[in-house]
Design brief:
- The protein is α/β, with parallel strands linked by helices.
- It has one domain: TIM Barrel.
- It is built from ten helices and nine strands.
- Strands 1, 2, 3, 4, 5, 6, 7, 8 and 9 form a nine-stranded parallel β-sheet that branches.
- The protein starts with a helix and ends with a strand.
């Protein structure tokens, strides 16, 4: 983990974290091309799915262990720390070797056995909100992560279930504002999963800044139409670079600066 990422946990109030990358690692070329764009844009963390929990067993589940060497190569070439979602406690040993920040997905927010295992690690953990979780349930899940002494926990709002199917989920930006006012948690927003629509991602990312978010996580892909998972919500490289320029313009208005690797 880089020094500046370590400093982020000491004073997140003045800093803004940008996490970007593909939903799933699909190939060496896809990951390295994406990693270069992420690094050049000034983002802090490269994301990429190694294992994917999918609703259908017939959907792409990730490259699994074949992805680790690709992650190592990308990190060595670009110098970016890497974040990935853990789906099973048995993955912890390899995650400790290759991953700098561990993500707990919404489906595992209630997996308290996994959360207790992760609480013993000296690695930052991003905890995504369950898609039907109340704020209290989400906070208590974070308490599990802190129970073993891990104080590097970030909550990630990624949308909750609603009745309207026009967007993938309902992005609850009020929860971000609430948590920043009534808790000591670092909070980031994932507008990609929240909207499910790449045309809405930039607007919600920018709105998250003014809701008080300490960072965002966005999905990007060299060719979203051919993505093996979540293509409709992935930004093209061009759209992502435009968003990053806009973010840099807006951050001074909330007295924050971009965390650089």
């Amino acid at each position: 983990m880089t020094v500046k990422l370590t400093e982020y946990f000491q004073d997140a109030k003045q800093q803004f974290l940008v996490v970007a990358g593909p939903c799933s690692i699909e190939s060496r070329e896809q990951l390295l091309d994406t990693a270069k764009v992420v690094a050049d844009s000034g983002a802090t963390l490269l994301r990429g799915g190694i294992y994917k929990l999918r609703t259908s067993p017939d959907s792409f589940q990730g490259l699994g262990e074949d992805a680790y060497l690709l992650v190592k190569e990308a990190k060595e070439q670009l110098g970016l720390p890497f974040i990935a979602e853990i789906t099973d406690p048995r993955q912890i040993p390899l995650f400790q070797d290759y991953v700098d920040v561990i993500q707990v997905g919404s489906r595992n927010m209630y997996n308290y056995a996994l959360l207790k295992e992760l609480s013993e690690l000296d690695l930052p953990v991003v905890l995504k909100r369950g898609f039907s979780a109340t704020l209290d349930e989400w906070i208590k899940a974070a308490d599990y992560l802190r129970s073993g002494g891990n104080d590097k926990v970030i909550l990630c709002e990624r949308g909750i279930r609603g009745f309207d199917n026009k967007t993938r989920n309902v992005l609850d930006l009020a929860s971000v504002s609430y948590l920043k006012k009534y808790s000591d948690h670092i909070v980031m927003v994932d507008p990609s999963h929240a909207t499910g629509d790449s045309n809405l991602v930039a607007d919600m990312a920018k709105a998250a800044i003014f809701a008080g978010a300490d960072g965002i996580m966005v999905e990007i892909h060299p060719n979203p139409e051919q993505a093996l998972s979540d293509g409709p919500q992935a930004l093209t490289f061009q759209a992502y670079e435009k968003l990053m320029q806009e973010i840099k313009t807006l951050l001074p208005y909330v007295q924050k600066e971009l965390v650089r690797s």
